[in-house]
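Per your request, structure below.
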């Protein structure tokens, strides 16, 4: 339902333009199209959500010792929220955290934070029983001593684990127990699959009649249409014009010919290129951009499914964090938070007085736009295998597959440890900028934009659809199940040059958690099919 009326009291839906079809842009588009706004989403790539690597939900941000507890609690809330919007994107398996003997820290240092998160999770369940999507609160984290792991190492491995002990058998067998401190910490921090996330967003937007998606399309410029006092810093804009060019038009007789559309509100969700639009709009802002990469390998000698394994380390040092993320069929994604694997010597750049857009070295822009060059990709992939093999010795038999997940990540401000960020609002010019360091923040950003549009009189916030959002009654989930998302995710994985197996999950969220939701809640989650891949 829209708020603006003509003189004849005929409802005219307002138009919103969203630039960038990553997790932020796609999620905001779903939120606004569901409310009846004519929502126009523009994405340069051929499909949605094809950006920096992701591996898990960051439930509580347990990875980051350097961020405050309150940010970890915010991440926990956000990951539960986003999971309920995109339930079929989740791989249900635990994450194991190990502090290496070379590290100055202790596993016990993390326990106060984990207790805070357990209490926060318990409180979220008390507010809404359907928030119990990460298992029972008392099982949110568990500790394993050296003695327990020695005992588990003597047990026969289970191909498809169903208990935490069974998940820990391969850890006990493969992890070099002489190189880590005890206890090991096991947390219900689940995997998040980018191919299934892209598929979910695509299917959701196809489901909403007010969503108009332009992929393979470049936005050339944005210009104010209705502008008051445009020469002053405190000017007002009520409409924007978006000039764009679709890929199939770029070989036209007149290459300068552009299509245009006018919108009542403009949202910048351009990821690491956010500053380009800020410059067009005339907004001054300080930010950084970081090029990061993770590497895809195959390790067939696992004997079955294993959890994600994290080895702590100081970011950016030669002994930075190592991260081994499992996919089906023996594929693994590797992060090594040092400058010869995931990070790059010149990969972190800042904006300037002249431009809000940090300038990445041309080599990294080339990688993002055209793909990695084979030689450096092969070298870094092998370095990633060697890095993990220091702690998981048999992983040295893993092989590279010639591809990686990578991209530029925007970081608002000047703090490169920032992990919680959402949206900046410029009410006088009807402009918003979504900058989500973690993808789990995107639905909260969408809510803030809805509040802003309500304050501006562009929509009526008190609608049934808006109430359905907070109950997570997303209409697209009624007739899109895990099998539908499976099909689209496989296509996207192949188009992007990844194995089809990476489009799947070992354990779907439905079988593991949604069956335990409150039976007296009428949300669409309870009506989902039970099929999983």
């Amino acid at each position: 339902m829209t708020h603006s009326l003509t003189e004849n009291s005929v409802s005219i839906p307002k138009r919103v333009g969203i630039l960038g079809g990553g997790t932020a842009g796609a999620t905001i588009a779903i939120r606004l199209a569901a409310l009846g706004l004519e929502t126009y989403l523009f994405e340069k790539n051929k499909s949605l959500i094809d950006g920096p690597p992701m591996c898990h939900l960051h439930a509580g941000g347990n990875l980051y010792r350097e961020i405050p507890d309150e940010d970890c609690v915010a991440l926990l809330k956000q990951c539960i929220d986003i999971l309920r919007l995109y339930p079929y994107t989740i791989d249900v398996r635990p994450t194991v955290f190990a502090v290496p003997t070379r590290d100055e820290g202790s596993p016990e240092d993390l326990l106060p934070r984990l207790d805070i998160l357990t209490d926060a999770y318990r409180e979220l369940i008390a507010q809404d029983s359907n928030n119990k999507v990460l298992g029972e609160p008392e099982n949110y984290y568990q500790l394993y001593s050296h003695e327990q792991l020695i005992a588990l190492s003597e047990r026969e491995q289970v191909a498809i684990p169903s208990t935490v002990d069974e998940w820990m058998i391969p850890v006990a067998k493969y992890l070099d127990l002489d190189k880590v401190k005890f206890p090991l910490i096991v947390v219900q921090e689940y995997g998040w699959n980018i191919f299934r996330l892209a598929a979910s967003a695509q299917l959701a937007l196809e489901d909403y009649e007010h969503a108009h998606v332009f992929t393979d399309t470049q936005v050339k410029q944005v210009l104010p249409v209705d502008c008051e006092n445009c020469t002053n810093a405190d000017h007002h804009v009520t409409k924007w014009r978006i000039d764009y060019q679709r890929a199939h038009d770029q070989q036209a007789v007149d290459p300068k010919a552009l299509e245009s559309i006018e919108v009542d509100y403009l949202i910048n969700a351009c990821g690491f290129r956010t500053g380009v639009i800020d410059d067009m709009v005339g907004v001054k802002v300080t930010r950084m951009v970081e090029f990061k990469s993770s590497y895809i390998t195959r390790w067939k000698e696992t004997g079955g499914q294993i959890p994600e394994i994290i080895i702590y380390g100081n970011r950016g040092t030669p002994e930075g964090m190592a991260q081994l993320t499992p996919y089906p069929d023996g594929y693994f994604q590797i992060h090594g938070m040092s400058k010869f694997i995931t990070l790059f010597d010149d990969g972190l750049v800042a904006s300037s007085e002249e431009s809000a857009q940090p300038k990445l070295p041309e080599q990294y822009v080339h990688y993002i736009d055209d793909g990695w060059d084979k030689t450096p990709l092969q070298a870094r992939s092998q370095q990633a295998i060697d890095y993990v093999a220091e702690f998981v010795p048999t992983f040295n038999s893993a092989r590279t597959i010639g591809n990686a997940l990578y991209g530029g990540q925007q970081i608002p401000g000047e703090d490169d440890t920032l992990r919680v960020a959402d949206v900046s609002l410029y009410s006088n010019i009807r402009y918003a900028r979504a900058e989500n360091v973690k993808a789990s923040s995107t639905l909260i950003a969408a809510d803030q934009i809805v509040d802003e549009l309500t304050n501006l009189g562009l929509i009526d916030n008190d609608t049934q659809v808006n109430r359905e959002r907070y109950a997570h009654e997303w209409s697209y989930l009624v007739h899109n199940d895990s099998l539908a998302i499976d099909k689209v995710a496989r296509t996207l994985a192949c188009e992007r040059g990844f194995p089809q197996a990476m489009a799947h999950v070992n354990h779907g969220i439905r079988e593991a958690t949604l069956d335990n939701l409150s039976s007296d809640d009428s949300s669409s989650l309870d009506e989902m099919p039970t099929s999983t891949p």
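Confidence is low (pLDDT under 50) at residues 1-10, 514-533.

Regards,
D.
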